[in-house]
Amino acid sequence: MPFPQMIKNLGVGIAEAQYALDKVSIRIAQMMSGHKLNADGEMEKDDTALIVLKEGESGVSLLALGFTPTFYQFVESYISIKMDMRFQEDRDLSLSAEVKGRYSTGFTNVSAAVNASYSQKYQFEASGSSELRTKLVTVPVPVIFESRLQALLKEDTGS
Questions:
Q1: pTM of the predicted model over 0.85
Q2: What residues have CB less than 8 Å from 86, skipping those under 6 apart?
């Protein structure tokens, strides 16, 4: 994969992961406020998510008790690519010749033997490795989000 494509994939992957993390944190905040999404995708009160502190009293949400959802953020990413390539070529040529002759009364007998061999060998090796690291840290709840949640809690309690 070309290096620019790796960088693009890393960036898009982090953005998609950040979106998913934020979405989960918002869902947790909704649950902690004592609400849930109904089948129509609208928020509705969920008494099962409220905590009853004293018998006979109405339940209190986790947000009203001071709990807040955790939000995460990617703060650092690192890519390392290592590649090693080797190419080797070996050639081997060997020749041998042998000539024998014999003379006998009026006749000459000559024989020749020739041996030849040729070899060529190619060797190619490639290896590579890559490392991808990213750092994820918790961040405070966005101030405007927390303010909006507090306003919603006041509306619910009628204060």
A1: no
A2: 123, 124, 125, 126
Q: Give the phi and the psi of residue 63 in degrees, each rounded to 5.
A: -65, -40
Instruction: Give the residue from 74, 75, 67 showing the smallest Cα distance to 141.
Output: 67
From residue 135, give the alpha-carbon distance in Å to each of 14, 132, 138: 11, 10, 10
- Backbone angles phi and psi of 6, in degrees to 5: -60, -45
Q: What single-letter DSSP state applies at residue 64?
A: T
**Structure tokens belonging to residue 61:** 């949400």
Token pair recorded at residue 100: 């024998």
Residue type, 1: M
Asked whether the beta carbons of 79 and 132 are under 8 A apart, the reply is yes
Token pair for residue 6? 């790796």
pLDDT per residue as tens digits for the range 49-108: 888 888 888 888 888 888 888 999 988 888 888 888 888 888 888 888 887 877 777 777
CA distances 140 to 28, 29, 33, 55, 156, Å, are 15, 13, 17, 34, 24
Could you tell me how many residues make up the chain? 159
Give me 19's structure tokens.
């979106």
Q: The tokens of 82 are what?
A: 């290592």
